[in-house]
Write a structure and sequence with these properties.
- The protein is α/β, with parallel strands linked by helices.
- The chain contains ten helices and nine strands.
- It has an eight-stranded parallel beta barrel with strand order 1-3-4-5-6-7-8-9, surrounded by seven helices.
- Strand 8, helix 9 and strand 9 form a beta-alpha-beta unit.
- The longest helix is centred in the middle third of the chain and has 22 residues.
- It starts with a strand and ends with a helix.
């Protein structure tokens, strides 16, 4: 398992991202702390000059693990379940641009908040259908470029759609596309799952990416989650992908990133 740190040039303060500011400076800081991988959160793909980023990472022996896309929903209100067809089309377009960038940087794309929120809960199937249609388009596009998509289970207090591991796995099974896999987040799981270890086991080979944060959404080790059990559960299903520290930058970004990595590497 490879540990990556989250970073963004600009993001609302409430968003759980550790490093902020110029992405090249973030890579330098992450490298000094001991990371070799970074998950970058972008509002749109044009924020990154892919050729410069690729060359910079190669020089540092660094790698971009994943691209987070949630700011497309948080800032621009784009989602795959919006009742407006134009908004859904723009969401697909935005995510395709992220896929294009990911192809060049050899990394995966996260679909978390951009899956959206269902405004009419008595018409669940209609909105689920909107999302299925959008992700089918994206999965076909991503597959043609060799880019994996990671669909995140997010707790009920943030979105009302695909909150649990089982909900998200059922949705992925309907897609029947190997390029779409589940993303689990230990913070969300602590809210939604009765047993984190059993939920991880149910993911099996469909697990594509992991977000790591403690029960209070601070760095691993700052709350009450048992990360030794979590890591051992991931080992049992032979997960060998990334574990990205997506957590609040408390007490400050460098300390949180360093302490979280130290705990995980000790395990």
């Amino acid at each position: 398992m490879k540990f990556s740190v989250t970073a963004a040039e600009q993001a609302p303060k409430s968003v759980p991202i550790l490093l902020r500011g110029n992405l090249y400076n973030c890579i330098d800081e992450a490298h000094q702390i001991g990371y070799s991988y970074m998950e970058i959160h972008l509002r749109w793909a044009g924020q990154v000059d892919w050729a410069r980023m690729k060359a910079f990472c190669e020089e540092k022996g660094f790698h971009i693990s994943t691209i987070g896309t949630g700011m497309g929903y948080i800032v621009d209100k784009l989602s795959l379940t919006d009742g407006d067809l134009i908004v859904r089309k723009n969401a697909v377009k935005r995510l395709k641009e992220h896929i294009d960038l990911s192809e060049k940087l050899k990394c995966g794309v996260i679909i978390g908040s951009m899956k959206g929120h269902i405004t009419e809960t008595n018409h669940y199937r209609k909105y689920e259908g909107y999302c299925l249609d959008g992700i089918k388009q994206l999965a076909d596009y991503a597959g043609s470029k060799g880019v994996p998509l990671f669909l995140e289970a997010i707790n009920r207090y943030e979105l009302n759609f695909l909150n649990t591991v089982d909900d998200t796995l059922d949705f992925i099974n309907k897609l029947a596309n190997p390029w779409v896999r589940i993303l689990i987040d230990t913070f969300h799981m602590n809210i939604e799952e009765a047993n984190l270890e059993e939920s991880i086991a149910r993911c099996g080979g469909k697990l594509g990416h992991v977000h790591l944060a403690d029960s209070n959404r601070r760095y691993p080790g700052a709350g009450h989650l048992d990360f030794k059990k979590i890591i051992n559960s991931l080992r049992r299903i032979h997960y060998d992908g990334y574990g990205a520290l997506e957590c609040l930058n408390y007490p400050n970004p460098r300390i949180a990133a360093k302490r979280g990595l130290e705990l995980l590497e000790t395990i």
